[in-house]
From TrEMBL:
Cleavable signal peptide: 1-25
GO annotation terms (biological process): metaphase/anaphase transition of mitotic cell cycle; protein K11-linked ubiquitination
Name under which the protein is recorded: Anaphase-promoting complex subunit 2
GO cellular component: anaphase-promoting complex
InterPro entries: ANAPC2
Species annotation: Aquarana catesbeiana (American bullfrog)
NADP listed as a keyword: no
Amino acid sequence: MARCSPEKLSAAWNTLSLGLVPASALGLAAPRSGIDESIGESDLKIALDVLRVCGLHTVVEEWFIEVLQMDLQRNIAPEFWNGINQQENAVEEQECVLLLLDTFRLLLSRLEPYLKSLEILGRWADMGFLHGSDSQILRDKVFTMFKAILFFSTSKTFQNMVQQFYSRTFKIYMRQKKRGNDSVSDCDSSMNEQESDSEDPVVEDFYCAGCESPKDQCWCSTAMEQFQQLNSIL
């Protein structure tokens, strides 16, 4: 039976630590050369095998979740909400939308290292390399933690931003859908006549009915692209 060497154990734990979580979460400066990115899954598996020899592989999942929880509470969540709260400085609706999207992009960039490691740990769990878990249980734990720490109590500012954004994009979508239907069918002619009676033709001439901006400043296409980007993040 292989011996549990303290030197090998220390090196293996160092490899797993830097390969599974960001260096900043461990209180370390981010390596200039991106050493954490050079640690591949095969290197991590070799390190895990060393921990298995020492009987310590059972703590890897618990350690990962604990580090993630601390990073969420101390760094990621405060950074996210500080970004959201900057909405007070945004004057235009487009500024608010861009701020919302940028804040979620930053959040995703902070979570991506953990999500990548979650996939690796999930594969290990399904192969029996970890202790008492599988990929679905592990994934449920992590995403429950995301919701509990990030979105358990949302601010009024955040709720207003999200509601305004989805209301705007829904209005743009419905306007575009109506135009598409009108272009391929004359069946809506009577409805169009009713709408034209209720809408101010002067307003219609100068303002986009979707984003409600002057037509030469219409940002409907941008809004729908941002809608797709935000949905892909969420």
